[in-house]
DNA sequence: TTGAAAGCGCTAACAG
DNA sequence: CTGTTAGCGCTTTCAA
């Protein structure tokens, strides 16, 4: 490992001069600088981050904290991580992957006590998240992918649920639908605190109201079986529903099966859209589902960038907050609603076809 | 940030004694040790990793290198990463996520030059991988998830393709199938060098041979469209095929559509299995596909553990090499083959049903 | 414009 | 058994 000293010797200058020349921290004569740069290049010099960090207190390492997620990791989470890693890399930062154990705050205390990281990127943020309180109190720079209930003072990048719901409703309304149902996650201990679950539900309600579209929002389903059941109940209670948005991929599988069992075709008899799911998943379905794809990679990038900005800004400028809507990817599951009464006669049992 | 010095002062001993007591690097009187530990606990002391690393040359940080993958990141890759991060965490190590840019070797040279990391975990290893050569020459400890063509001297964790293919063939043969087709990735510039693509193909060929099952291996498909075409050609050329294994998820979508268009039911008329795909993906299909699920998380864990073992072992013990077969998850797409001639008559065009 | 020197927090000889 | 000392490689005063 070649060090500053080696370079200094080769260029016949003092160590501090080399440091200055390479970092531009103070003026260095052009000729001297040239010699130094040459020497450094010849020796393949790389600054030692540990030494630098030890004195400067800045390591250019960010930690990405993620709870071992409740329902296994999806593409979405991966894209947060890779997006963040990329953005960090572009700015000369590194990303440390930190799985959280049972006690996230303890984990954070440990991690930040190491002196290894400059800041923290929080994933899977809940409406009330104890991690944010710890970080605020400890004065550790951080930003969130997602947001708490009251994120005023904190930088975050999150999905623009308002706009997303509005786009979805507009899409459906433009096709002529007058009544939309939404299958949310079931409000278990986790979802009850999980932003996307809560916010999507609320915003769908609001967006349909604004658009004058009738709304059915009190169903939930997380598995194929639940999707199937919910769908059957939905049709029983609301036979005039023509459009359905589903947040859980497995639930959509059940819905499709239940619809088929009823003899309903998609999209002729039912418009089905997937919410917060990647287009890659939507393509696994037949027909290819219309989907509202979360901008995961971008959120990761934004989160990292905000954090880095905050680290670079010596003073404390106001927190950055960015909301990005999902991308509406129209598949083959969106269509105009059936004419009234048109589909009721097709209740043949096709099981086994 | 409380330092060793603070602890030393509070416990009324020398700094080196504190270090020794806390690390057990040399005998310390029980009473002294107790005092030191108390002081450390009271002050909430955490060793500074940078300082420690600077002198000990060991940071307990591993880098996970991943090329920006050719077809977007899948669940599989994420699971490598999280598995590795977990295993690392358990051993007191940290995982740095390092996206590779255009020039992976240059990236590696930079990364390792930083003095920040103790070792490297390689993902997406190709049969000839220039990164391994660099690392070997540079003497940097590393291990691979996947393996090169001749990985003799290197530690790795990879899928046991032989066993995986054998299990798949056994499954199909036990159901009574006598002829199996396999749709591989198309041999583009990437796949031509990519281990799983090559090895899965080879091992399917070998396993069918051993099992006395007829084999069709010269088809490939990476998209739904290609899957559809390949399937039509397959049936034209081999009307007696009753079982099909597909490596690409989107291709399976095409196969299912093409089969349905032909009036073939799954599994009655065709047994379809997904190779190297997660059960979560397989569940998106209808019927739920039988799948050979790669042990991604475990491979990540193993890779990390091997690397750490190698770092801990001062001497150089032989490289560890582990092969883990995919898990066969039987879904609703496996069944006995149709009786000869049984399905030929159903070639009604059902498009629009 | 440059050099010398101090010190970041820690480990590892070496004395005592 | 414990304290003193010398660095690890770097940044950063402070003098020259």
From TrEMBL, chains A, B:
Coiled coil region boundaries: none
Ranges of biased composition (kind: Basic and acidic residues): 341-353
Gene3D superfamilies: 3.40.50.2300, lambda repressor-like DNA-binding domains
Entry GO MF terms: DNA binding
The keyword Transcription regulation is assigned to this record: yes
ATP-binding found in the keyword field: no
Keywords, alphabetical: DNA-binding, Transcription, Transcription regulation
Signal peptide: none
Chain ranges of the HTH lacI-type domain: 2-56
Pfam family name, one: Peripla_BP_3
InterPro entries hit by this protein: HTH_LacI, LacI/GalR-like_sensor, Lambda_DNA-bd_dom_sf, Peripla_BP_I
Region annotation Disordered: where it falls in the sequence: 328-353
Protein name: LacI family DNA-binding transcriptional regulator
